[in-house]
Amino acid sequence: MRRFRDRDGGEWEVVVGRESWGAAVAIFIPASEGVEIRQAPLTASGYEAAERELDRMGGAGLQDLLDRSQPKTM
Q1: Phi-psi region for residue 11, left (φ > 0), alpha (ψ -120 to 50) or beta?
Q2: 12: exposed, middle or buried (C-beta count within 10 Å: 0-12, 13-18, 19+)?
Q3: Is the pTM of this model over 0.85?
Q4: Tens-digit pLDDT profile for residues 43-67
Q5: Gap between the Cα atoms of 2 and 36, Å rounded
Q6: DSSP assignment of the chain, as one string?
């Protein structure tokens, strides 16, 4: 899990998740009420590789992922 502050000052927790077909995604969980959970695909194959991908990202990389993210469907 990583904590991340977006360009507007919003706080997020970012974790690796898996889609039903096995693809790895970054899941953005907002610290604020009323903001939806979001997700973005990761390029890594496998959970451990996806965690390393997130760990290597700086703030700009996480912001880019958040910018490309979609609302997470339940």
Answers
A1: beta
A2: buried
A3: yes
A4: 988 899 999 999 999 999 999 999 9
A5: 18
A6: -EEEE-TTS-EEEEEEEE-TTS-EEEEEEESSTT---EEEE-S-SSHHHHHHHHHH--HHHHHHHHHH-EEPP-
